[in-house]
Amino acid sequence: MVERGGRRFAVRPEKIHMTEAGAAAQTGSHAETGRIRDVVYAGMVTRYVVELDGGGELQVVRQNLETSSAEALDAKGRAVLLEWRPEHQLEIDSGGETEGER
Questions:
Q1: Which CATH architecture has domain 2-95?
Q2: What pLDDT digit, counting tens, does each position of 66-76 carry?
């Protein structure tokens, strides 16, 4: 869960696009910079835990189409840019309910 500007939201890990820091963000997407804190290689996918520069953390899941376990694990500590489309974030109110539960 991330809090920005008084709003709390979550993003599904598979909906987040991760590129190297310094890459240009896509127009219309939400972008956050951070650093990969942890990497878990799980065969078909790798799960990355990213500490955001603005506070909080997000998990990102990427399918291992062309990445070896050594390459994935070497990403730990790397600065990255995370992006997602606004429709992929789930707003959470201060009571912990999502928009659909109200």
A1: Beta Barrel (2.40)
A2: 888 888 889 99
